[in-house]
Amino acid sequence: MAGVGIDTKIYPDMVATPNVFGGGSMSKQSTSMQKDSPEYMRATESLTLDEMMYSDMRKKIPGMTRVPKAKLDNINSLKNDWEQKKNDHINFVKQNFTMLECHRFVPKHNQKVNQRRDLRCECGAVLSDHAGMYGITARNIATRDMMEQFLIPEPLKKIMSQDKRMDPPPKELPKVEWNRKESFRTSVTNAFGKINFINVEYTGGKKPAKYVRLSVTDPIDKLITLMKDHWRIMEPRAPNLCISVVGGAKNFKLDGRNRETFNTGLIKAAKTTDAWLISSGFNMGVMKAVGQAVSEGQSFTWDDDRMAHVLRCIAIAPWGYVRGRRFLESYNDRGRFPANYKTSNSIPHNQPVPLNENHTHFILVDDGFRNNFRSRVESQPSKDGTKDKFRSVPDFRAEFQARIAAPVKDGGLGIPVVLLIVEGGEDTLSDALKCLEHDIPVVVCAGTGRAANILAYAYDHTKPKKEGEIMKAKYQRKLGEKIIAMYGEKWAEDEIETKVDKILGVVLKCCEKREMMIIFHMNKHEDLDFAILSALLKGKKKSSSDLQEETLNKLSLAMTWNRADIAQEEIFREDVLWKKGSLDTQLLNALLLNKVDFVKLLLNQGIMMSEFLTTRRLQELYEKSVCNNKREAAMKNAYTDTDHLIKMSNRLGLKGFATSPFDLNDVNTMITILMDKYDDNANIFDDENDQDDQDGRFGVSLRQPDGSPPTKLDTYKYPYKQLLIWAVLLNRQEMAKFFWQMGTEPINSAIAVSRIYGQMSKFVHRNESTLKEKIEGYKGEFEQLAVKVLDECHIKDRKKAIMLVERKSPTWSKMTAMQMAASAGDQAFLASAACQNSIDSTLKRGILSAWKRIFFAALFPFLIVTKFIEVSKLGEKDTNILIKFFQFYTAPATKFALYMMMYLCFLGLYTYMLLVDFSVNKITYIEIVCIFWSCTFIVDEIYTFITYPSPTTKGKLRDWYGALKIAELLNLVLHVIAFIVHSLHYNQEAKTIYCINGTIFCIGILKTYTANNTLGPKLVMIKNMITELSLFVMILLVFLFAYGISSQGLLYLQRQSSWSILKDVLYYPYWQLYGEIFLEALDTDTDCVDRALQLANSSNTTVDATYCRTFNFLVPLFLAVYLIIGNILLLNLLIAIFSNVFKSVDDNSKEIWKYHKYFLAMEYDNKSALAPPLSIITHTYWFLNGLHVKHAVKRRRKVYSLLPVTWNIYSCLKKKTMSTYLRRFKEEQKSASEKFDRLQKRVDELFKLIEDEFIAEVDDNRFDENRFLETLQQQQQQRPLSWPDPESIVELSKFIAEKKSQIEPIEEEKKEAELTLEEGDKKEEDIDGA
Fold it and tell me: Boundaries of each TRPM SLOG domain copy (predicted)?
């Protein structure tokens, strides 16, 4: 598409439309170019969307214009390219397509016209509409006379002479033979190009429709070539379906609910499969209904800067029945681009019909006839006595549809075709039969009238041919009556039986292929797209050699529709055997198209994911999913928006996500950054024992298709883990949930996904709030899944649940669930019962006593040997007092108590040193003790940082070192600096730094509150309030500076440069906020004025007193406004902010406290049992021991790793717990919709039963309600003053009452089901809200 016209890239010289796609006026530099240079205008018109986006920016930069320089340089080559495409199009049409025109004027007999010039030929056209009588060749009178002599046979020349054209026609015309084979002649077509409907206003954009006129004898292969190569109808995506719609014409109407059902179902089916819609294209009947449906769902897509319709609606119409067809003809044999055409809603009787404006492509088939719609043309005998075979327009359409549906290897397009019947006349029944003969399935919209109702009735009362008779005689009689009621109004009495038999034969032939028919009841169902898909899947079964290919094609179609339920019923039956590897491509497509239900369905067919997912396939998944080129993504069926992933990879310095070839190492690097630690487990064989089991432990082969064993790096040990990561990176939540269910370790996997989502949200720009909120919502969903599964396990077995959260996961790089949850900020998970039990167990390490007793026992150790402190034996049969002492003092809770007590002692000693013992002449012993104590604090902090359970240094800083920790560590370093400064005799400076140290040391007492469930959340509130306070200060500074600058400027007329000015600007306004008004500072400085006067008098010189402060009446006014804003408005704003912070934290105070409790446990779990300064002993020992034994940590880790059997037990436990939770969750989510569906199905069956019984009773008793009412009417006419027969009335009343009694219970059940459904919906909403 070009920047100015819709199609200027193809036919720039034919477009004269203004720029409607944006862009400002031309810059001053290019104004002269615009007027004088056609090349510049052509370059402007050729701008693509991306180039137009920057056109306004370029024109505002000196030296640049709207059009890029490269575009101006290549304008000639672009022009030649456009001209070449246009010429190729015109030459192709003229070489391959023709038109049929009548060259022999023979009027029909018995025409009722007033003048001879109005006589119509056997072809349907008047004389002036015949070949050579109109257009450019007929402008010369001599030429017209010559053509008349050629067209009019000799017996008719006198009657049709020029001087008698205005006379009435004779009663009898001479009999002249007319034969279409001899009368119709072909010539090069003169109508092709684009149609512009000038009297129609489009909503959402406008694009001319393409059209071509061709004859019924032209080859269909050339038409398909025109559509593919020149119309580019297969771009940007080829269709997966073709829906052909036939039905009622002039007298057809589709209103109300039926219209909504038709439009919704048709557009849903078309958009889901990128389907083509085919109709006759006229602005009437079902064709107009199709156009209205397309208009409601139409949109545009961009393909290589070309605007294309999303819904492609193809019209195959007879050329001779198009009103205003002359406006589509070209008089220079170069086509019309565009042809301006006016449509109309007026449909006169027996007259041509205008085209519908909502069709995108028009194939105008010329059969030679004019001004009438001939669906079928009878064969006529030729001179040699044989009958000529003439292809009609419906025949052309049927063959065109058959060619579309034919396999590619047979010259077709391989696109499934389905016929949709909506109402319709006799021709519709013939169209249905012809499609069924071409193995095209048919969907009948029952309830729309005429042909549709006839086929629906016949379908419901026929049996398969193998069971004997197709339809019983009583149903055939009823069907005949329906045919007469539908079509018999215009039939003569002597032809009723013949026509009924003919139509009945067509209907019965259609029912012989009832397996290819689907009846869709418009009044009972709403899913028309479901019926279309069902018809395609019920298509004719091919030979055994093509059966599997046909089945796979149907599977692809069902996958496009995302109807796994139909695929389960129609495709994956128990009698179907699939070859190994035959479904691998379908599974890959299901993954790419995000069809979760189909992935489940395919895995149920025996596909082993451990064999399917190789490194090559995983790389293919990423390559096809993460595509930087949108056009390439569309061609690869990669519909996922992966811009966020590409942006994130660019920020991380990983270019493989936006380039080709794709590298899986970039994925590993990205996950490592997001999770701190990652192992892709690419080797499926862990040890030598696995090498001997290449055929599978459970009889499942892991070998490659050629029989060779898989290489180590071909497959993955945890394939579902790789697919889970793939789905998470692409934001495919439902797919990720499925792989989470299928994989191992559901708790750890859910937390790992939560971690990845949490990190991904940080890389999303704040402007993309919707995407950010969506990712954070996905994170919360997986966190809740982990919590629910863990709670389910905790209910069943408390101890095993604790071990599950403490165990290092072999799937996720030896990280525990709590460790990943802490990094992800999953407060709800760490606040769960199992995690809190684990944290309490870690903190107390077997101590059963309360926290208060632990503090007392830490102060008075003799209480440990008494019953005041109770401890668990931790699996030992018996313990002694020494073990009890060790158990007590190595517990993190005891360490915390000792550390806090020792810290208070240090603080007291430091306070004494600061207030009493500090000396300016020397360094005291207490100061030395304090600095030594601070050094032990630093060593302890370093040791805790090294041993903290985070896999990376960045993770340790993020998870453990908060603002308070950093301030504490810096304060300790500052303490050492103060000691050095004091030793250098900078006493005042040292004392100042010591005082700052003391302030921070006192604030450090707050960390003792983290263990308290009441004070702990308050610290979080303070932290959040400080963050909000800093933002509030930014607002306050604006008003503070505004008042300070203005007030100082008014008080001093002039002033010398000094730093005191800045102090006055900030000092007075700040303290005035707290009530210190400083009113005396607003008055005139009399002392300054007096001094200036005295100095002037003593020195007899003039001294300027303008440097003194002088009162200004505006300053108090400014002060009043400033205080109103600061003390009332901003202060109340701050209070409101703090209230909101308090409320948000208070609502989750317990959860927040439990979350921070984990970090407390991890910190003190790795600390020394001796608190500083005594901890230096253990730290020195561990340091020396670590130098001596370098691999002690590795050996210790190896000792504590679980055995494979134990790992399998815990994996089975988690999988079983997850299955239990999911099963219970699904049961809770079950609404009454299933019950309602069952009742609805039962109602339909009962109605069918009642209908069958009613027909049987009518046939047996020879009672017909319509005939009965006719008899009553006749009796009333014979006896107008008498009543009808009472017995008949009673008989009819009893019959109606009996049927009502059968229906009433069903209606009551339906009402109950609806009430139950409403209750189920409410319950489902409550569940969703929870």
Answer: 209-374, 384-490
Question: Can you tell me the distance from the alpha carbon of 239 to that of 256, in angstroms, rounded to the nearest whole number?
Answer: 30
pLDDT tens profile 1163-1205 = 888 888 888 888 888 888 888 877 765 544 444 444 344 445 4
- Measure the CA–CA gap between 657 and 680, rounded to whole angstroms: 18
Q: Residue 378, SS3?
A: coil
Residue among 276, 313, 308 at smallest CA distance from 291: 313
Token representation of residue 211: 């059209």
* DSSP line for 185-214: EEEE---EEEEEETT-PPSS---PEEEEEE
CB atoms within 10 A of CB 311: 22
**Largest alpha-carbon pair distance within the chain?**
146
Three-point CA angle 260, 261, 267, nearest 5°? 90
Q: Which residues pair with 100 in a beta bridge?
A: 186
pLDDT of residue 166: 86
CA 644 from centre of chain: 14
Is cis: bond before 1116, omega within 30 of 0? Answer: no
List the helix and strand counts (H, then E) for the chain: 54, 14
Contact between 322 and 335 (Cβ < 8 Å): no
pTM of the model: 0.75
824 alpha-carbon distance from chain centroid: 26
- Torsion angle, CA of 168/169/172/174, rounded to 10 degrees? 150
89 vs 488: CA distance, rounded Å: 48
d(CA 1070, CA 1076) in angstroms, rounded, equals 9
Phi, psi of 1233 (to 5 degrees): -65, -40
- Write down how long the chain is: 1330
Q: Which long-range contacts (CB under 8 A, 24 or more apart) does 568-577 make?
A: 568/601, 570/534, 570/537, 570/538, 571/537, 572/601, 572/604, 572/605, 576/551
In DSSP notation, 1036-1093 reads HHHHHHHHHHHHHHHH-SS----THHHHHHHHHHHHHTTT---GGGGS--HHHHHHHH
- CB-based burial of residue 1124 (10 Å sphere; 0-12 exposed, 13-18 middle, 19+ buried)? exposed
42, burial (CB in 10 Å: exposed 0-12, middle 13-18, buried 19+): buried
The answer to whether residues 213 and 364 touch, using CB atoms and an 8 Å cutoff, is yes
Tell me the CA end-to-end span of the chain in Å, nearest whole number: 49
What is the Cα–Cα distance from 591 to 598, expressed in whole angstroms?
Answer: 9
Cα 738 from Cα 105, distance rounded (Å): 73
183-222 burial string, b = 16+ CB within 10 Å, else e? bbeeeebbbbbbbbbeeeeeeeebbbbbbbbbbbebebee
Q: What angle do CA 1098, 1104, 1110 make, to 5 degrees?
A: 115
| Cα 864 off chain centre by | 63
| Chain segment 969-994, per-residue pLDDT in tens | 888 999 999 999 999 989 999 999 99
Give 3-state DSSP helix, strand, coil % of the chain, rounded to 5: 60, 5, 35
Question: 590 and 605 in contact (C-beta within 8 Å)?
Answer: no
Average pLDDT over residues 1215-1239: 61
Is it the case that residue 908 has pLDDT exceeding 90?
A: yes
User: 294 near 259, Cβ under 8 Å?
Assistant: no
Q: Report whether 14 contacts 330 (CB < 8 A).
A: no
CA distance 1184 to 1188: 6
> Which residue stretches of 573-663 are H helix?
584-592, 596-603, 609-612, 615-625, 630-635, 643-651
Q: Where are the beta strands (DSSP E) in 319-411?
A: 336-341, 361-366
Q: How far apart are CA 418 and CA 433, in angstroms?
A: 13
In angstroms, the CA 1103 to CA 1281 distance is: 132
